Amino acid sequence: MKKLFFSLSLVLSFSSLVHAQWVTNGNNIYNINTGNVGIGTSSPQTNLDVSGGIFGVGSESHFSSGIYADPVPGKKFDVKIGTNGLAVNGSSVFNNGISIGTTSLPPGYSFSVNGSAVATSMTVKLNSAWPDYVFKKDYQLPSLQEVKAYIDQNQHLPEVPSEQQIAKEGLNLGEMNKLLMKKVEELTLYLIDEHKKNKEQNEKIITQGQTAKQQENRIDELEKQVKILLQKHSK
Description:
Layout: H1 2-19, E1 22-25, E2 28-31, E3 37-39, E4 48-50, E5 78-82, E6 85-89, E7 98-100, E8 111-113, H2 144-154, H3 163-169, H4 173-234
Parallel strand pairs: 3-4, 7-8
Antiparallel strand pairs: 1-2, 5-6
């Protein structure tokens, strides 16, 4: 009987000790234990260590290394994290940069990928003007002589980054497409000018040909008249 009473007292004492670690405050319940809490594991590594999945519906779950600040007030997102990675329903919001395949994010950039990327469509919005100004009447188109002199000195087109600059800084797709379009528009103006010159030259050649034909006809007519005069003189 004494052994039974002692065992029962021991169990009750242990149960009280365990339950004493959990405290309720209104609708809240929290653990006053200074150690870690494990669910599905006997050796928790953090304040809450769960061996298995966590599922929640309705309210939001917040994770923060310090004071929590809602990145998008009033918005809710569905997130799934597993062995295959991260899946998000709806739009994702990242207030800072994203690095994929690398731990470094170059200053001034919001997205960094160490590897290849595939996309079926991509839109780049430029901060500078699209070069339709090339077709304005007041645009100063460089002469081909000026372009040739620049190429001879620098071994690349004016305004286009050099091989060394691309190797050091990389290729800005938006700016490069803008520059390429500018060069295409300048090339179009060169071709239009060359076509105009060729047309004028052809018209001049045609005019010269017509003049030559007229002169040839006059010469033939003069030769006929000379023959007639010679025949009359011989009689």
